[in-house]
Amino acid sequence: MGKTSCLVTLLLAICTKDIESTSVVIDLVNSNPSMGSTLKLVCKVAALSRPDTIVYWKRTVASVQEDVTHNSDVQPPFNDLKIERYTVSPSDWSPTSRTYTLTITNIQPQDCGSYECSAEGITTTKDIVVYGDMNEVNINSYKNGEIVDFTEEMITSLKCVVNDTARNTALKAYLTTSNGRTDITNQFLGKTSPKIVTIEGIRAEQSDLSLTNDKFPISRQYNGKDFVCEAAVAVAAKSKSAKITLNVLHKPEITCKGNNKYDLGAVGVSLSCIVSANPTISKDQVKWHLPNNITLSPGEQTGPYRAMFNEKDGKAEVKLLISKVHSGHFITYNITAKNTRGTAVSHVTLSLIGASKPAVQGPSDGGSSSSIPSIIALVMAFGSHIVFSL
Fold first, then answer.
1. Of 71, 80, 68, nearest in space to 111 by CA
2. Which residues contact 356 (CB under 8 A, 6 or more apart)?
3. How far apart are CA 371 and CA 3, in angstroms?
4. Does residue 279 have a cis bond before it (omega within 30 degrees)?
5. Which of 34, 84, 125, 354 suits a disulfide with 11, CB 3.0-4.6 Å?
6. Do β-strands 286-290 and 294-296 pair in parallel, antiparallel, or remain unpaired?
7. pLDDT tier at 370 (50, 70, 90 boundaries)?
8. Phi and psi for 76 in degrees, rounded to 5?
């Protein structure tokens, strides 16, 4: 069964008479009672105009009033609701004044409400606060802590719900990482559905709370983040939450290192790219594309070329190694990476130091080339003092 609570306020209504006015005062013996404790409300009535005046204890929940106890000077105190935990005892009786103490034992959240003591048309009211345990928070039909797969750029529906909770509970939504959390409650439509329930014969006010976004956009930046819904009663410092981890599936993204400039004849040249993907890729899903339609996968070697693959922090570092650079190696090399979400293509350029533009095609073998771009590269490397025989 859900729990409920209410706030503490004090309403005092005084009716002025030509003579000394009747007064009704309620003293709260233990303010902010904890669940399971004993609560005492002491009603002190003074300046009664009639010795047979009847003093009433009533309780109001959501504008509906009901008798809790009814006491008179003739009849001993009794409990109209027949709740054993509620008792009323008189003391300090006199024809013009008296005291009636309402005692509630083993107090529960459903005991909260407006407690009213009345005599001769004079009324004093106190609202009682009792905070109980909060109910579970739910996100869609997911299990708390579940890792949920989403695809990049999809539109999904997210809904947080907490049922039968305190009417002053706040429900909020966050995206969290190890570095902190971001409040995204304003992206959701909030709804509060108050209701009256009967618990152990006592009327109690509760609420169903929800946050809904039927068009929540999933982007790659959410991958690995937690979506958290938290219900909290700030006054009582009580809260409960639920979370799911967003696992955003996306095609590979390739980022290659730039400024790859070397001298002719350089040895041990390395061209490097970082591939991020979800699902992550294996070395068989990456390929370097060399001249003459040659493809090279990590772990393979052809001529001066060798491909390498290394996993690091959930990403793949892919390298193309060239043992010794010849003129025809100064070209742009393509790299492709593929997973179940798609294929990405990128490129990295090997440039000759001092050259304005690299050649666009590579050699037909591992060491030399008779292509025009290769001749241009040689001219740029050694100057114009070259004699050609035709």
1. 68
2. none
3. 83
4. yes
5. 125
6. antiparallel
7. very low
8. -65, 160
pTM greater than the 0.70 cutoff:
no
Distance CA 36, CA 26 (A): 22
1 pLDDT band, cuts 50/70/90, is very low
Query: 353 to each of 258, 272, 380, how far by Cα in Å?
Result: 14, 18, 10
d(CA 325, CA 351): 11
**Angle ∠(121,125,130) on CA atoms, nearest 5:** 155
pLDDT at position 17 over 70: no
Give per-residue pLDDT as tens, 91-136.
887 888 888 888 888 988 888 888 888 888 888 888 887 777 788 9
Give the pLDDT of residue 245: 97
Handedness of CA 163, 215, 252, 352 (dihedral sign): negative
Angle at 33 between CA 32 and CA 37, to 5 degrees: 175
| Euclidean distance between CA atoms 355 and 161, whole angstroms | 64
Kindly state the average pLDDT of the residues 253-267.
Answer: 92
CA pseudo-torsion sign 289, 295, 297, 300: negative
Q: What are the backbone dihedrals phi and psi of residue 373, each rounded to the nearest 5 degrees, phi first?
A: -60, -35
Give the contacts of 28 (CB within 8 A, at least 6 positions apart). Answer: 39, 40, 41, 42, 126, 128
Q: From CA 195, how far away is CA 244, in angstroms rounded? A: 29
